[in-house]
Amino acid sequence: MSMLQEDRQLTDISVAKLMIPSEKVAHVQMNNPLEHALLVLVKSGYAAVPVLDSTYKLAGVIGKTVILNQILGMERFETEKLSEIRVKDVMNQDIPTLSKDDNLLDGLNSMIDHAFVCVVDKHNYFDGILTRRAILKELKKEIYTSKLFNK
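C-alpha cells predicted for CBS domain-containing protein:
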C-alpha cells in the first residue's frame, strides 16, 4: 500500500467521528469571574477550557496560567482579584477551530501547538473539542491495522 493510499484513508476520518461532544466538555462563560473559571479548571483537572458566550457560541479559551498570571503580585497571590476580573477580560481569542466535516489530517495540523481544538458549526456555535489524545489513538489504530505494519 502506498503512502498516498494511507493519506487518503486518513482524510476519510472526520472530526465528527473523533470529537468529544459539547455536552461532555467542561467550559466557562465569558462573564464568569476568574474565580469560577479556576474552580472549573482545578475540579476538571484540565489546563484550559473553552469559553462560551450566553448563546453558546465559542468566544475563546481560558487556562490556569493566564488566571495565575492575573493574580500574581510582587510578594503574594492577590486572590481577591479572582472575583473582580471576568473571563472575557483575559481569555485567549486567537485560537484555531475546526468543523465536524474537517478530517483527521486537518485536526492534526490545527493542534500541533494545542492539546485540544474547539469544533464549531458555520455560525460559530460550540459543537465540542478534538483532543490530541483522540488523534493519537486513531493514528495508532491506523498504524497497527495497516498492511505496512503487518508485513
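The beta strands are 20-21, 28-29, 48-52, 58-63, 97-98, 116-120, 126-131.
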